[in-house]
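Hey, resending since the last one bounced:
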Amino acid sequence: MNIGYLDRRITLELRGSSLNAYGEPDDSWSSVGTVWAGMDHGSATGKQDLEQDVTRNAVIWRVRSSTLTRQVTPKYRVNYGGEYYNILAVQERGRKDEIRLITERVVSE
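The structure tokens again:
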């Protein structure tokens, strides 16, 4: 893995469940850590869902393997520049060398 391509800072976030003041579940995201990553653009698709245009952008993030990145699952999400990417799958490349996060960013218009 050429670490020179890891030129973006992403934040890994995990959904936590807590209760609000009324005892109702309050889904909030908490930051787990920030890592260097490389962005590979995948594909983009568009469709109309319930009379609303929805665009899905597939993005693959390449990060170095570490104790933090090896614990990432599809329950996490990526925050990059205020945009959120849902993690669909996690792939390990090589022997604890590189982790690929297959994500999608959903934009409703």
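The mean pLDDT is 83.

Sorry for the duplicate.
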